Amino acid sequence: MFRRMNVRHGFVPLELYTLWGYMEHMRKDIKASCLKRLNRIEGQVRGIAGMVDDDRYCIDVVTQISAARAALRRVEEEILRDHVAHCVEHALASGNRADQRRKIAELMEVVGRAER
Questions:
Q1: Would you say the C-alpha torsion 91, 96, 99, 103 has a positive or negative sign?
Q2: What's the pLDDT at 29?
Q3: CA 37 from centroid of its chain's CA atoms
Q4: CA angle, 80 as apex, 77 and 82 as ends, to 5°?
Q5: Are residues 23 and 15 in contact, defined by beta-carbon separation less than 8 angstroms?
Q6: Domains in the chain, please, with CATH?
Q7: Are 34 and 75 in contact (CB under 8 A)?
Q8: pLDDT digit string (tens) for 75-92?
Q9: Of 28, 14, 24, whose CA–CA distance to 84 is shortest?
Q10: Out of 39, 59, 75, 104, which residue is the most buried by the measure of CB atoms under 10 Å away?
């Protein structure tokens, strides 16, 4: 477990410093899938930079930027699905109404930001 030094009290679990704490880690298969996609997207973005450097046709560059943005959205959706399946589900099952409200509010905020 990661820990953060607290001058007055010694070591304190890092999750206490994280917004609403950690519930569970991302599932291994989802994590692997996301990392694979993100590596592909990283290569795609490097390719776009090369296109700009080579003075490629603007519409071709914009088309590739749109494709990279769509790929990032798919990764975002996969991570959000995993979050709902673990963190939100855990809050709902816990019966802790304050935690349930926080998790739902957090989810709504993130979804709202994603649509901007």
A1: positive
A2: 92
A3: 13
A4: 110
A5: no
A6: 3-114 (1.20.58.1000)
A7: yes
A8: 999 999 998 888 888 888
A9: 24
A10: 75
Tokens of 51: 């296109």
> Is the pLDDT reported for residue 108 higher than 70?
yes
CA pair distance 21, 95, nearest whole angstrom: 17
Amino acid at 105: A
Q: Decide if pLDDT at 7 tops 90.
A: no
pTM: 0.70
- CA distance linking residue 39 with residue 62, whole number of Å: 20
Q: Which helix (H) or strand (E) holds 4?
A: strand 3-6
CA distances to 31, 45, 55 from 50, in Å: 28, 9, 9
Amino acid present at 53? D
